[in-house]
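WARN  no MSA supplied for this record, continuing single-sequence
INFO  ligand: glutamic acid
INFO  echoing inputs
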Amino acid sequence: MTVTRFAPSPTGHLHVGNIRTALHNWLLAHKSGGRFLLRIDDTDAERSREEYVEAIRADLAWLGLTIDGEQRQSARAPIYQDAFERLRAAGRVYRCYETAQELELKRKIQLGRGLPPIYDRAGLALDDADHARFAYQGVAPHWRFKLDHGEPIEWLDGIRGRQHFEPAQLSDPVVRRADGSWLYMLPSAIDDIEMGVTDVLRGEDHVSNTAAQTQMFTALGAEPPRFAHEALLVGREGKLSKRLGSLSVGALRDSGIEPQAVTALLARLGTSLPVEPIADIAVLANSFDLSTFGRAPARFDEAKLERLNHAIVHQLSYAEVADRLPAGMSEAAWLAVRPNLETVADATDWWQVIAGPVAAPALNEDDRRFLAEAAAHLAWSDDPWGALTGALKQATGRKGKSLFMPLRQALTGRDHGPDMHALLPLIGEKEARQRLERAAAG
Ligand code: GLU
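INFO  complex generated
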């Protein structure tokens, strides 16, 4: 069974870039009836906040990304400790004492000599007396994972194809700080094993982490999961990061974007599949396919999201929106105005047009006389608009715009809007007659 996970750090609100990763993992799991897990990466106690954890859950729920299990890294210290002890006994983690400044200096010297800035493994050369001296000075060690330089690191990436790294070209990653706290890399590998994750799908900024993590899986006696790294999401003009605040889930929701528009766009952006207003996430899951992913950065275009949103709004059923409509607005009213909406919230304006009052338009004398005649001809039936315009055409010889426009203006107070066949029955006979008479009176 496919098991995927989304592993956000609760240090801020989710934005389109994170959501895309979450969505793709959800789709990958659901394509084959698998499970999608949420893992809260809150090892950084200072920057993690409970309000963000709650917001992440709420945002995923709003998007329809149901979760089949949740873990929090802050609650799993004993599991990490246990795995760490095993790595220590196997000689796969070692103590180091360099300060950040010392490491920076080493890097500068290497770069000055034209060498890659790889950690020199000075910590590995220390003996018991060295460690005792540091301990005596009250300097606690931080820990690095010892990469096995014995053979190249390789994996078949679900998006990038065959990947190859020479471990000697990588620094042994720091996995634990001097204060005992964990850095992201090792707990993530431990969790992926523990949680039975079969597929890790994440951004390509994690490719070199994967190189080190594949060795962590092996060192912990586990088969590495399948990995796939997707190209990053960029804005129309380049990097997205500057504008991420405006692209949070909350901001999108507040601007009238429907979750189905977000998922329809992000599911297919950067793939060879067409972006279409597909509201049913199961359809998106069935067509989800890593082999359709391109290697170029995916471009996020808000205008495209808005267009997609209009198309999604035009598909929403009354049941899906009823709790967001003004009190009293019926299903018939929703269906009548729906094709004219850009957002669900716009329905309120049209409900106002239906329920009234509407301002009488300023019309010339000719049109006013015409509307007086319209008020006289108004009769109620299944199709009062068809009957009214038919009768007026006969009686006045008007047709086209000169027939329809003054009627629309008098009945709705506007020049454009939903089909009058649908609107007039909703306005009702008495109210319609009053509007026509009022416009006729000027
Ligand atoms: N917390 C990590 C991040 O947000 C998770 C990366 C991963 O998917 O392993 O970058």
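The mean pLDDT is 96.
INFO  checksum written, moving to next record
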